Amino acid sequence: MADYLVIVESPAKAKTIERYLGKKYKVKASMGHVRDLPKSQTGVDVEDGYKPKYITIRGKGPVLKELKTAAKKAKKVYLAADPDREGEAIAWHLAHSLNIEEDSPCRVVFNEITKDAIKESFKHPRTIDMDLVDAQQARRILDRLVGYNISPLLWKKVKKGLSAGRVQSVAVKMIIDREREIENFKPEEYWSIDASFSKGKETFDGSFYGIDGKKTPLSNKEEVDQVLNQLKGTEFKVENVKKKERKRNPSAPFTTSSLQQEAARKLNFRARKTMMVAQQLYEGIDLGRKEGGITGLITYMRTDSTRISETAKTDAANYIKENFGEEYLGSVKKGKKSEGAQDAHEAVRPTSTFRDPKSLKSVLSRDQYRLYKLIWDRFVASLMAPAIMDTMTVHLENEGVQFRASGSKIKFKGFMKVYIEGSDDNKKEEDKLLPDMEEGEYVEAAEIQPNQHFTQPPPRYTEARLVKTMEEQGIGRPSTYAPTLDTIQRRGYVTLDNRRFVPTELGEIVNGVMKEFFPEIINLDFTVKMEEDLDSIEEGKAEWINIIDEFYQGFEKRLEVAEEEMEKIEIKDEPAGIDCENCGHEMVYKMGRYGKFMACSNFPECRNTKPILKEIGVKCPDCKDGNIVERKTKKRRTFYGCDNYPECEFLSWDKPISRPCPKCDSLLVEKKKKKGTQIHCTKCDYQEEPQT
Fold first, then answer.
1. Per-residue model confidence as pLDDT tens digits over 223-273
2. Which domains are seen in the chain, by residue range?
3. Is 401 a residue whose pLDDT tops 80?
4. CA 287, CA 276: separation in Å to the nearest integer?
5. What Å distances lie between residue 136 and 92, 248, 320, CA to CA?
């Protein structure tokens, strides 16, 4: 029998760690939490110091029994849950269930699942950090008091199945506020004047800058005409030439938030998928017997720190020197700690730089490979030398009218040899060269083109933008981003349209109720302060009971007012304008989990339902008389089919467009590519350049 019992959270980790520790250790998995607040009641005694009532989670009895049996036979038990608040709380619950003394050095933490890291961590066991436990416990109790008191009100006054929570309610409010901004946005007219210049055989582009050296905005066509009338001829004098060298520094290695954002931009991953694949890479991948079997490939993926260990820096520096040369090695800067960051462990990075993505491609799934490559590239690039750009700005003048042209050329790639950070506006990184010019010489304007523009409203939130904004505002923490986005979609408060969040009618109603009766819950400043209070508990600067009590005193009064004054909101069914084909009664629009759908008004006698089909203005190429409509799979993936289904079974994952193929007259579709949207034919080889 093994001398020592080690308890981790997942079976995948258990196998790997047991192999690293040797025969004296038996490693078992708790499968996450073993105790929690009961689902059937609030489970918090507000009359007795907010004392939580913990019970064994349903279905965890056999797991706990097995752990208790193994613990009795072991000389010592080590608790090795994840290195964060949640992991500390799991360890504390396990210690309580297994009768392990709280002051016993039973807690082992590691930031990566590698042989060296595991063995080193077992040399330094510590006691359970009760400040971390209290911070997690405070969050759990706070969320339970909010959710289990407001949700029943929403069930009673609005609709069954609804819920409210601190972070999710704020996220919904942010999406609704953005929608109001878009609706209330008034576009403003502005103009630009672009020109194509030539110097000898070389051409380059420039734009209007101003009059007599002063930058001048153009608001209307009259102002544009004044500028154009002031010009004489097409010759422009090179008035000023500025050449300089500019350095561009690499981005820091990933935090949870920046990883989710970049995976969305570059890999098209949802936040939930990013965390799921990252968990697989962290817990370990089987590299084969020669390479050491199951090995953790990245460090812990829930972090708000960009800090890197000295060992990892040395490892990466050696790799960079060996593979790129000494000149590509950058001077390592200390990782910045953002305001409010817990900085509990390192940035998300590979456990070994020498395990480059190419060498692991054969043992990783496609998604694992792509995410690992993203993490590896970003980490290595963060320690490389800055890129050096030669930039050139030229001012061109004709009768006091100034145009400006700028260009740049990569002189030394530096970190850009490995990685360039993505952006939400799909800007491309490329050389934009200007011909050599000297002050006093002349160039010719081949074409001068005025262009009318209108200011655009702020864009709707993508998952990446929302996570970034939540992080900047201090709302939530690394472990909460993905679950929050998942919850607000499952509750039907928001939907995704073209990968951007749109509030539903239900979301608007619930937000209105929260705004009227519980304004502090959806107040950004309140939510940020609550996160700071939780951090204070973790740092041992505040008592969790005091933080909960300060919140609950005001919250309880608002609950009483809401119980008395909140009127029942009836979400009326709208007539759909068609009759049910099964019973002849009128079909109506109803509100469901994923927004509106059509149902028979004779429910429950008739249970006929239909999705609301969105026509895209294209005739069906198969049956010729049907219209192509947008549909959704059960997993909410968009596809396109004929509204004559099931008589016509036309189906396309790509969006059809109304014009036919100029080559064979067949159907053209839009196909999403990394470089943008590409139009191609479904029958022949015709395709058009991608449009960004």
1. 999 999 999 999 999 999 999 999 999 999 999 999 999 999 899 899 999
2. 4-128 (3.40.50.140), 145-184+459-565 (1.10.460.10), 189-249+387-454 (2.70.20.10), 256-382 (1.10.290.10), 572-612 (no CATH)
3. yes
4. 19
5. 11, 40, 40
b/e burial code for range 179-189 (CB count within 10 A of at least 16 → b): beeeeeeeeee
Q: How many CB atoms lie within 10 A of CB 26?
A: 18
Active site residue 594: no
Among the listed residues 20, 50, 209, 300, the single catalytic one is 300
Q: What is the mean pLDDT of the chain?
A: 88
Is the CB of residue 137 less than 8 Å from the CB of residue 125?
Answer: no
- pTM of the entire predicted model: 0.77
Q: Provide DSSP, 57-111.
A: PTT-HHHHHHHHHHHHHSSEEEE---SSHHHHHHHHHHHHHTT--TTSS-B---S
Preceding omega of 646 cis (within 30 degrees of 0)? yes
Other C-beta atoms closer than 10 Å to the C-beta of 234 total 15
């549909």: which residue's tokens? 631
Q: Give the Cβ contact number of residue 226 at 10 Å.
A: 12
Q: Which two tokens stand for residue 624?
A: 């010729």
Q: Which residue has the higher pLDDT, 341 or 122?
A: 122
Element housing 544 (H / E): helix 544-565
**Which residue from 41, 12, 48, 40 is spatially nearest to 27, judged by alpha carbons?**
12
CA distance 690 to 675: 6
Q: In sequence order, what are the beta bridge partners of 592?
A: 595
